[in-house]
Input
Amino acid sequence: MTPYRDIVTPAVVAAHGDDPSWVLLDCRFTLTAPEDGAESYAEGHLPGALYADLERDLSGPRDGRSGRHPLPSPEAFGKTLRGFGIGPKTQVVAYDEGSSVYASRLWWLLRAWWGHEAVAVLDGGLTAWLAAGLPLTTDVPPVRPAAPYQRPARPQGVWHETPAIEALVGQAGCPLLVDARGAMRYRGTNESLDPVAGHIPGACNRPFESNLRPDRTFRPAAELREQFLALLDGRSEADIIHYCGSGVSACHNILAMALAGFGVTALYPGSWSAWVSDTRRPVATGDQPH
Output
């Protein structure tokens, strides 16, 4: 069967509720209240879903230089996958409250970083599930054993460390840096999470919210494609690098581009929180890239 690779509807997920080859992961999280996601999961979640915590399962330990949500080590992430019962042939579906921000982080880790094709985000998340009249449960399912999973070779050009971004900024022909944060954080007029306000010089702003309709589902693929082509302005998709505050909401833009028919474009996982860990790095403010 052809895997689901980008987004999937509540109806499709509900139809596979008893499929042993499917794993559902609840990724709800609140940056300012890290325990909220697990508490919400305990109060009610999709039948069969396990809980994936952004900081425990989808990030590595902080070291003061690699941002607020560093990538986990391959060894740690492989252990996490085994703990969820995810193997090479597992269809994974990630969801959160509806924005798909945290679900997109899991999608990126599996698709781009791990090379797992069968992973999709529940379009509209828990909000869409409930709107469809589908049930929740408080039961925590047992983990189904899966075949051992050896991580395949990492695709090239999928993500960049801070030194690579430093080397690119200000250079002629610099890749297009796209900041997924809200406009006020990009401009530097409101920064609630990181110690320095502003954006990386040369970066343009595309808040991840631009990818969503009012009901929190993704905009149609053709509409997203038109918007991203305008953003690229003649550049190749290989010329784009996405970032945000800590490498989470930028994955939403990457998912939206994949949905629009582009490849899986590049991420700067450390993002703004890693960039401003060294005060010698340049900072831009205002509405313009520079």
Remarks:
- Strands lie at 7-8, 22-26, 49-51, 91-95, 119-122, 176-179, 204-205, 240-243, 266-267.
- The radius of gyration is 18 Å.
- The first helix runs from residue 10 to 15.
